[in-house]
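To close the section, here is one more complete example, presented without commentary so you can practise reading it yourself. The ligand is iron/sulfur cluster.
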Amino acid sequence: TKRVVEVEETHDSVCPFCGVGCQTEVSTVGNDIVKVDGRQGPANRGKLCVKGRFGMDYVMSPERLTKPLIRRDDAPKRPDARMTFSDIGSTFREATWEEAMERAAGGLTDVRDTVGGQAIAGFGSAKGTNEEAYLFQKYIRQGFGTNNVDHCTRLCHASSVAALMEGVGSGAVSAPFTAADDADCIMIIGARPEQNHPVAATYFKQAAKRGKKLMVFDPRKQGLMRHATHPVVFEPGRDVPMLNAMIHTIIDEGLYDEQYIQANADGFEALAEKVKDFSPDAMAEICGVEAETLRDLARTFATAERSIIFWGMGVSQHVHGTDNARCLIALSLITGQIGRPGTGLHPLRGQNNVQGASDAGLIPITYPNYKSVEDTDVRSRFEDAWGRSLDPKKGLTVVETMDAVHDGRVRAMYVQGENPAMSDPDQRHARAALAKLDHLVVQDIFFTETAWFADVILPASAQPEKPGTYTNSNRQVQIGLPVRLPPGEARQDWKILVEMGQRSGLDWHYADVGAVYDEMASHMPSLDHITWDRLMREGVVTYPVASDDGPGDEVIFTDGFPTASGKARLVPTDLVPPDELPDAEFPLVLTTGRMLEHWHTGAMTRRATHLNAQESEPVVAMHPKDIGRMGFERGQQVTVATRRGEITLTLRADRDVTPGMLFIPFCFVEAPANVLTNPQLDPFGKIPEFKFAAARIAAAS
Ligand code: SF4
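Output:
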C-alpha cells in the first residue's frame, strides 16, 4: 500500500476580519488551513489577535455552500422564517451554474425591462475585494441605470465620512494607527479597540506605557481605560455637549492655534460663537463629566505637542453621528493637531475592506474616488467610459432600500456577501422587506439569514480562496492571493460578477482580476503609481504615493486640504438628543456592538470552532448592581424589549456596563439584537441609531 504524505505549505495572506488589515502567513495541508501566524506587515508588525490566529477554520465549515441553489416553487418566503443549514433541502433545490445564473440575472433584467432599473437595488460587500466592489457598483450602475447600490459602510462610518468629506475633503484617515508611536496625546472615543481592533489597541497601550497621555471616552467602561491617563465614562448619546465643552475651553482659554486656523480652516468665528453656549459648567450635568475634568481634557489635548484622535461606532451610530464627527474634526483643526507625525483623525474601520469598498464607489452617492453622481462632468466621464447614460440622482441607502421595498419602489435585489437580515436595524421590518421582493439573488459562502429569503443562491469564495486587493483602515492597499480552492462548485466572486454582467447584456471581458484592478485604478487618482504588478511585487502600498517605487504618504493634509479652497471647514453643531429617550415604559438605554470573539453578524466567526466555543450563546450584559436591584440572577433567561420587538437571552453581569444601560452583541441569530434597534437615521450619513434605544428587561416567562 502507498502512504500519502501531505506536505505543509505556507502562503502569504491577509486577515479577512477587521480593518486593521494584519498580514498573515497561512499554513495549509492539502486544502485545509492548519495554522495562521502574523507577518511583519506595516499594520501588525508580526502580531495577530484571536480572530486572525484561531478563526480561519470557518472556511472549512461543513456548512459552506457548494452548489447553486434555486428556491422551490412551493416554498413561500416567510418573514418570521428561522432556518438552519439542514433546512436548505426543503426550501431550495440544487441547480447547475447555467440554470442558476440564467435565473439570477434573468430575474433582475426582467424587473429592469418591465418595471425599470430604479426598481433594482444591490448591496455589495466590505468583506470582498476592491475589484469585486468596483465590479458590483459598475454592474448596478451600468446594467440598470440606477445608483441604488450600497454596503455596510452605511451601518458603520457613513456619518464619519459625511463629516470628513464636508470638513477636510476626504473620507479616509489622515494618519495610520501606528502614528500613535509618535503621539504625545491619544484620544479614543466611541471605540473599543481591545475587542474590535485588537492589534491596533497594542499601539495605544504601548504609548501609554511610554508615558504618553491616553484619553479613553466611552459610555461603558472598557479594559483600555486601565491603561489610560484620562478614562472618561460619559452619558450615552451626549458626545456633542461634551466635545463642544472641550472646544469652548480651548477657545475661551486661548489654547487654539490661530496661525494654523488662519492658514488652513474656514468657519472659526461661527464655531466660536456656537460653543459659547457650551461652557463646561453648563454641560457637566448633561454629559455626566465634571466641569473641571472637561477643562483638563481640553487643555491636555490642545497643549500636547502632538495629539491624535481615533474613533469608532460609538461616535457614528447615532442620529447625531455626523455632528459627533464634526466636533472631533473641529477639535483637531482648531488646535492644529493634524497633518504632522503623531497627529490626525482616524475613524477605525470595522471590516477588512470597508475603506476600499467605499473608495471603489460602492455607495449610492459617489462613483469611484468619491466623485459625486450629481456632478455632470464626472457623470459624463463615466458615461463615456461605460457607454450608457447614467442615473443623475443619488441612489437609496441600505435602510432606505428596505423602506422602498415595502412601498413597492424596489422589486428586486442582488446581495453579495452582506447580511441585511441580521445587520439592519428593526430587523422585522428588514426581513419583511426581503420576503416581499419579487426576486432576490444572494451570493455568499454560507446559508446566511438573508439567504433564507433568496430566489437564487450563488455559492461564492471565502477570502483565502480568491485573488484581489483590500484596503485597510490605514489606506494600505494589500494583495491577497488564494491559498486554497473553493469547496465543491463554489466560484470566485469576481468571475460570478462578470458573468452576471454578461448575462445582463453588458459587454464585459476581463482577462483576469488584475485587469479589473487596472480599470478601477484608471478611475481613481488615489491609486496612481499603485499598479497590480507593483502590488504583486511589494504586497502592500499606502495611498497616496507620488512615484512608482517610493513609499506612500502615511500622513496626509501636510500642506492644506483636498477641497476647492484648499482649506478645511469648521462646522458648528447643536445638541440633538437621541431619537428615543428612556421613559416609564422603557426605562433603560440599550446599546449594541461587537465582542472580541465574533465579527459582525457572526456568519464567519459563529462557524469558527474555537471562537464559537468561547462565546456560544446570546447574552445581554448588565451592571451587577442593576441585576441585584431588579431582583434578577446572573445566568437566568430574560426578555429585553423595545418599541420594535423583544428577544430572550441569557443575563450576564458586567461591571463595564453603566447602571441604567444594557449591552447586547449583534452576532447571535438565536436572539438577534437588531430586532430591538432603532432605524431612525442621521440626516447626513443616513446611519441608524444602533447605539441608543429605550428598552426594558423582564424575567423570561
Ligand atoms: Fe485580523 Fe483585525 Fe485581529 Fe488583525 S486585529 S488579526 S486584522 S481581526
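Once you have examined the C-alpha cells, check your reading against these statements. The pocket of iron/sulfur cluster is lined by residues 15, 17-18, 20-22, 44, 48-49, 51-52, 197-199 (CB under 6 Å). The longest strand covers residues 646-653.
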